[in-house]
Design goal:
Layout (H helix, E strand, L loop, with lengths): L2 E5 L3 H13 L3 E5 L2 H10 L4 E5 L7 H9 L6 E5 L5 H5 L7 E4 L4 H15 L12 E4 L4 E4 L2 E4 L2 H12 L5 E2 H8 L8 H18 L4 E6 L3 E7 L1
Parallel strand pairs: 1-2, 1-3, 3-4, 4-5
Antiparallel strand pairs: 6-7, 7-8, 9-11, 10-11
Helix pairs in contact: 1-5, 2-3, 6-8
Length: 225
């Protein structure tokens, strides 16, 4: 069971998040003080952290920076301070995503699941006679005895498509999965990333196509020769 730490000093909001997350199958633990939370998160690391920006004791930004010194645990910042969003978007503190108050608990759960899909290492099985392996830690893909490095966007794009072979993703769905700052990009940007990723895969395995365009809809992962 994925264990989520809720670091939130508003009791009603913390209780609401806990109830919704547990109803969705997550385990939870709640901290209402930043200093206590930082000590406990270091001592007993959870699988995910929902972290309020403004807390008694140590503030959320400091907690995030301190955790990032030793941990890659997924972190979603919760903030009511709109003026801080630019800093969050710039990944200055190392958060994976942010959400603004007020919000729907269902939106938080959706964001948690999106981040988990993005950061969870992909276990890739062999594809026929060759090994197709996505190495998330090294940000690279291997096909047989060849390998190449990927940008973070290309890595997230490939992980998304490969995790659901044959499923067609439209450009908006890909956009929400490969960018963790909720930026708005054009269809051309997505197409450009797909084109570059295709070129890299083609160089690893000439004559084999892994990513296919589906006219008028989007893209899917499927090995064809």
């Amino acid at each position: 069971m994925t264990q989520i730490a809720i670091v939130e000093d508003e009791p009603k909001l913390a209780s609401l998040l806990r109830d919704y997350l547990e109803a969705d199958g997550f385990g939870t633990i709640v901290y209402d003080n930043g200093t206590q939370a930082l000590d406990e998160l270091k001592r007993n690391p959870p699988d995910f952290v929902l972290l309020d920006l403004m807390l008694p004791g140590t503030d959320g930004m400091t907690i995030c920076r301190e955790l990032r010194k030793t941990s890659n645990v997924p972190i979603i910042m919760i903030t009511a301070r709109v003026e801080e969003i630019d800093r969050l978007l710039g990944l200055e503190i190392g958060a994976d995503d942010y959400i603004c108050k007020p919000f729907s608990p269902r939106e938080v759960i959706a964001r948690v699941k999106t981040v988990l899909r993005r950061v969870t290492p992909v276990s890739v099985e062999s594809v026929s006679e060759d090994d197709f392996i996505i190495d998330e830690g090294a940000a690279m893909v291997r096909v047989g005895d060849k390998e190449c490095t990927l940008t973070s966007v290309e890595l997230n794009l490939l992980k998304t498509l490969h995790a659901s072979p044959g499923r067609i993703f439209n450009r908006h769905q890909l956009m929400t999965r490969i960018y963790n700052d909720n930026r708005v990009v054009s269809d051309r940007t997505i197409d450009s990333h797909v084109k570059k990723l295709r070129q890299k895969l083609e160089a690893l395995h000439p004559g084999v196509q892994y990513i296919h365009s589906v006219y008028g809809i989007g893209y899917k992962f499927e090995k064809t020769t």
